[in-house]
């Protein structure tokens, strides 16, 4: 039952992220796309440690984080306690937006 619920939650989050994808060019030449953070999904949704690929993508997408935090559809995911833990574990400072 818990596993089915977990899979359902992950599927819902993935669907929300895909529907609300915003591609915005940033001064550093990064294209902001929340789907780039898909390697971090498991860590954002649980207390598991982020993978090396998650940390790399989080560093790459750092210029985009304020935009994600301003998006009402994404805010609850990228501002969650687990997302903050992932940022700390990856040594990526949370931006002041």
Automatic annotation (TrEMBL):
**Residues of the signal peptide:** 1-29
Which Gene3D superfamilies does this UniProt record tie to the protein? Plant lipid-transfer and hydrophobic proteins (1.10.110.10)
SMART domains reported in the protein's UniProt record: AAI
Which residue ranges does the record assign to the Bifunctional inhibitor/plant lipid transfer protein/seed storage helical domain?
Answer: 32-97
Whether DNA damage counts among this entry's keywords is no
The question of whether Transport is a record keyword is answered with: yes
Keywords in alphabetical order: Lipid-binding, Signal, Transport
Do you know which InterPro entries this protein is assigned to?
Bifun_inhib/LTP/seed_sf (IPR036312), Bifunc_inhib/LTP/seed_store (IPR016140), nsLTP2 (IPR033872)
Among Pfam families, the record links this protein to:
Tryp_alpha_amyl
GO terms classed as biological process: lipid transport
Q: Name one GO molecular function term.
A: lipid binding
Please give the PANTHER family that the UniProt record associates with this protein: BIFUNCTIONAL INHIBITOR/LIPID-TRANSFER PROTEIN/SEED STORAGE 2S ALBUMIN SUPERFAMILY PROTEIN, BIFUNCTIONAL INHIBITOR_PLANT LIPID TRANSFER PROTEIN_SEED STORAGE HELICAL DOMAIN-CONTAINING PROTEIN
Name of the molecule in the record: Non-specific lipid-transfer protein 2
- State the encoding gene: LOC108861543
């Amino acid at each position: 039952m818990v596993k089915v619920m977990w899979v359902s939650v992950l599927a819902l989050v993935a669907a929300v992220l895909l529907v609300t994808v915003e591609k915005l060019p940033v001064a550093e030449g990064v294209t902001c796309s929340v789907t780039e953070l898909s390697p971090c999904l498991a860590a954002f949704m649980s207390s598991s440690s982020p993978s090396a690929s998650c940390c790399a993508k989080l560093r790459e997408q750092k210029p985009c984080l304020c935009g994600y935090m301003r998006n009402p559809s994404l805010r609850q995911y990228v501002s969650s306690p687990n997302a903050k833990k992932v940022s700390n574990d990856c040594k990526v400072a949370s931006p002041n937006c």
